[in-house]
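thought: fold this chain, then report.
action: predict
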Amino acid sequence: MQNKAPRKSHPLTMESMRDELRAGARLFNEGHFWEAHEAWEDVWARSTGSERAFAQALILLAAAMHKRRAHGSLTARNFHKAMRLVATLPDVYDGVDLGALTSEVWAALHDQGRAPRLPE
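observation:
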């Protein structure tokens, strides 16, 4: 097991959260799902409430895409975990239409030619 460097601890503001989410969105849209997952980890770790649920849902959707694309896994466990979190959020959260996003991810999990996208 590899030791990770300690994460920087700094207060999370709405502006920095959006910047960090946007950075992960760019990676996600480029098909770098694991990297997007990692980019959102710090946001998730410092968030609470609905912000935390949103970040965790994004992480799980990225993990589902990574497992499908990198490992050929047909399991949808991470997708279904994300759906439970999405159910606790408004239909549109921080500019993301969660229904459209989850539909795109579901379609992409079953069709290698499809690519889900997030607003940047």
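thought: worth noting. Residues 22 and 46 are 16 Å apart (CA to CA).
final: tokens above.
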